[in-house]
């Protein structure tokens, strides 16, 4: 078994490293990593239903889809991520309680009364401190998870404040749970860096892995995969299950109703009803059809095109946030 401590803090790069190592290294592998602020959401989710896009854009929080299923999670430098890459073994890869034993053992060694909770979580005092997920391809298996050590919980709450009621779909919906950080529960305080070092040493002793550094060629191929897939529009938005969006609000006494049907991230049907002439409503519906359903694409499509008030406003930003 080998151990790789990923030095990058870019979510797209680290998720690309997971996939690259899973597909190209035959040995079992343990990874340890952190990300700068990011929302990492599940393979079968609708990102818009899970996040507050305005907060993500204003705070510089990345949005990245992962290979594994499950719900959306918030990452920052106070959150620690671990990954186990293994040859697929019958009876193990679906057994979360067995898979999380090494992590449970580490947390217990710190004097923390943790336990498996639900299908894929680890809780402390009834509050979630770790969410886990898995993915298999061929005979290879990935099991990974988060550890909320000293995460900005206010930012977590804001980032994951998606307007789920506006979306109709058959994708996976996140299960919201109350969370806590590990750090306040420690008998002896430590930094997140020390926590990671202790986790690394514990796993090396328990699993017996040898430390390996990525080669220049490894890094080049991971960089290419991150850019082509994990940081790209197609993977982030274009692989979403089909969904319908509806938003009906009034502004300044003027109604503004939007209905969208989205397939593979593209608006296929749009209907806009607002306090404007009928012809303007038709123009807006036609304007939206064929546009990718994401903030930057919508902003570009709307720029300089609102010739009539929508909900008592010609401001594209006003209308933009009624489309997400």
From TrEMBL:
Transmembrane segments: none annotated. One of its GO terms (molecular function) is ligase activity. It comes from the Bacteria. InterPro entries: aa-tRNA-synth_II/BPL/LPL, BPL_LPL_catalytic, LipoylTrfase_LipoateP_Ligase. Pathway: Protein modification; protein lipoylation via exogenous pathway; protein N(6)-(lipoyl)lysine from lipoate: step 2/2. Keywords: Ligase. Pfam families: LplA-B_cat. Gene3D superfamilies: Bira Bifunctional Protein, Domain 2 (3.30.930.10). Residues 24-203 form the BPL/LPL catalytic domain. One of its GO terms (cellular component) is cytoplasm. One of its GO terms (biological process) is protein lipoylation. SUPFAM superfamilies: Class II aaRS and biotin synthetases. This is Lipoate-protein ligase A. It comes from Desulfacinum infernum DSM 9756.
């Amino acid at each position: 078994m080998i151990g790789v401590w990923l030095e990058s803090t870019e979510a797209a790069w680290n998720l690309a490293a997971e996939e690259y190592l899973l597909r190209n290294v035959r040995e079992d592998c343990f990874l340890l990593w952190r990300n700068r602020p990011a929302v990492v959401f599940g393979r079968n989710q609708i990102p818009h239903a899970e996040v507050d896009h305005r907060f993500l854009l204003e705070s510089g929080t990345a949005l990245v889809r992962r290979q594994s299923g499950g719900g959306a999670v918030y990452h920052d430098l106070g959150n620690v991520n671990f990954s186990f890459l293994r040859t697929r073994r019958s009876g193990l890869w679906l057994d979360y309680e067995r898979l999380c034993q090494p992590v449970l053992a580490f947390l217990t060694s710190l004097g923390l009364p943790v336990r498996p909770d639900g299908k894929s979580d680890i809780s402390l005092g009834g509050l979630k401190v770790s969410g886990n997920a898995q993915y298999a391809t061929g005979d290879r298996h990935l099991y990974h998870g988060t550890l909320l050590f000293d995460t900005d919980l206010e930012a977590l709450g804001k980032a994951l404040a998606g307007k789920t009621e506006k979306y109709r779909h058959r994708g996976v919906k996140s299960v919201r749970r109350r969370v806590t950080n590990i750090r306040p529960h420690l008998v002896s305080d430590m930094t997140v860096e020390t926590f990671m070092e202790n986790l690394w040493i514990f796993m090396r002793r328990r699993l017996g892995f040898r430390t390996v550094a990525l080669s220049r060629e490894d890094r080049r191929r991971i960089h290419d995969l991150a850019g082509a897939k994990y940081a790209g529009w197609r993977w982030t938005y274009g692989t979403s299950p089909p969904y319908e969006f509806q938003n009906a609000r009034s502004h300044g006494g003027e109604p503004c109703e939007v209905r969208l049907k989205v397939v593979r991230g593209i608006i296929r049907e749009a209907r806009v009803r607002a306090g404007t002439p009928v012809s303007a409503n038709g123009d807006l519906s036609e304007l939206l059809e064929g546009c990718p359903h994401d903030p930057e694409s919508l902003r570009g499509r709307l720029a300089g095109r609102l010739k009539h008030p929508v909900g008592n406003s010609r401001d594209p930003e006003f209308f933009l946030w009624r489309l997400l």
